[in-house]
Write a structure and sequence with these properties.
It is a single chain. With 413 residues, the chain is of the alpha+beta class. Helices cover 31% and strands 14% of the residues. The protein contains 13 helices and eleven strands. It has helices at residues 33-41, 62-79, 124-137, 162-166, 181-186, 195-198, 218-231, 235-247, 288-292, 295-298, 304-316, 322-328, 387-401, and strands at 83-89, 95-101, 118-119, 253-254, 268-271, 274-277, 300-302, 342-346, 349-358, 361-368, 373-379.
């Protein structure tokens, strides 16, 4: 999942006791990725700030909102996407929410709205990583604990730590790359997968534990198993109780582990001048099999509004204690991956967050820490390039925020 989840593709800072809002640190960055990583690993939380960033924030300038909507509409038309939703949070806490197109195709097409859930694929990993880190804060597990504590018979379990699973450094084969994945998942659209069955989709190990970075969704399925054994509850129950309910994320659901309260957008691929969909008549997206096989690696559906709120809460310090957030954002110098988060570039600028893809859907959520700008994009067109849209939304916003240069003085005759 993430950018490779689908088999077909995927300065001030602050500190505060307990959980609360943390100010964002301005980071100096240059053009080299290595410099980006060095800046990110220097993130510390040292200056406490009260209240959420959005409290009392002004509305987005109508002129900017109109420009962003034009970019959104242009991208959807040029990519022939059924629908797309985006969010941009500005440094003053104000936010633009934009939608374009439909949540489904055909005669009964319904428009995408800010509250329409999409399959967010590997953005699920940000929830799972935050959950594991909260359990660590609660003293219920240690990042250095080996997988054998819970699954003693799993291959190499004595050598794989929780931290390796979080950072994709376990060397485990990615089950999405299994040779039978296509037939077993999409050849049986109504099949409901369980973690034990998913873990049987095995393949050759990429490397010994801890010796390389290889993105593998299997890591997060295993983390889901650990959560059940540690808490006695499903990942969905933990995420709802710890994150969704306290933060008011009422348009977010963990597919396969709890009821889906609001019908999500249907996912599609573009085939020539038409679309092919994957829905099976249920509320699972892309379908029952495709949703449940994603499990703790990518089964969540959420709206652009909720993803934006989640991103702001997580990176703003409302979810994790300072030490935990610093661990999440400690990016490996070669892979650029931390613990359920990664660094990237939006329009030439440093960004931190995650991307995702699942059949019929692509998603991303990134923050530009230097500019204090958040960008979220969700679409129900699989195999599409939403990076170009995120770049344009970023460029348009920053250009609008930059003051016009002062006029040159008039020469004295």
């Amino acid at each position: 999942m993430g950018s490779g989840a689908e088999r077909s593709s995927d300065g001030t800072i602050e500190s505060k006791n307990g959980r609360g809002r943390y100010a964002r640190r301005a980071l100096n960055h240059h053009s080299l990725p290595r410099a980006f990583v060095a800046a990110l690993t220097a993130i510390m939380l040292i200056v406490a700030v009260a209240g959420p960033a959005s409290a009392g924030a002004p509305a987005v300038d109508p002129e900017l909102a109109a420009k962003l909507q034009i970019r959104l509409d242009q991208w959807r038309v040029s990519h022939r996407a059924p629908g797309v939703a985006a969010a941009v949070r500005l440094p003053d806490g104000s936010r633009w929410l934009g939608t374009s197109g439909s949540r489904n195709t055909g005669k009964n097409a319904r428009p995408v709205k800010p509250g329409t859930p999409f399959a967010i694929a590997s953005l699920t990993k940000t929830f799972m990583a935050a959950l594991i880190l909260q359990l660590r804060e609660d003293g219920k597990l240690n990042l250095g604990t080996k997988l054998s504590t819970w699954l003693p018979d799993y291959p190499k379990a004595k050598k794989m730590s929780v931290k390796m699973l979080l950072g994709h450094r376990s060397g485990i084969f990615d089950y999405f790359a299994n040779s039978q994945y296509e037939s077993r998942v999409f050849g049986r659209p109504k099949h409901h997968w369980r973690a034990g069955e998913i873990l049987k989709l095995t393949g050759p190990r990429y490397c010994p534990p801890g010796t390389c970075y290889r993105y593998s969704n299997t890591n997060y399925v295993l983390l889901g198993v650990i959560v059940r054994k540690v808490t006695g509850k499903s990942p969905a129950q933990n995420i709802r109780q710890r994150f969704l309910e306290p933060l008011g994320l009422t348009e977010t659901y963990f597919q396969g582990q709890e009821p889906i309260g609001r019908e999500p957008a249907k996912g599609y691929w573009a085939i020539g001048r038409s679309w092919i969909g994957f829905a099976d008549g249920s509320r699972y997206r892309p379908n029952t099999s495709g949703a449940t096989v994603a499990d703790a690696a990518g089964a969540i559906v959420s709206s652009v509004r909720n993803v934006s709120d989640w991103q702001d809460a997580l990176l703003g310090g409302d979810v994790l204690e300072p030490e935990s957030l610093a661990l999440m954002l400690r990016f490996h110098p070669r892979s650029g991956y931390g613990l359920g988060m990664r660094y990237a570039v939006l329009d030439g600028r440093l960004a931190i967050g995650h991307g995702g893809s699942l059949r019929g859907y692509v998603s991303l959520m990134y923050r530009l820490p230097v500019d204090d700008l958040d960008v979220v994009v969700l679409t129900n067109l699989g195999r599409s390039n939403i990076q170009t849209l995120a770049d344009k939304l970023t460029r348009t916003t920053l250009k609008h925020l930059e003051p016009d240069p002062a006029p040159l003085p008039t020469p004295i005759p």
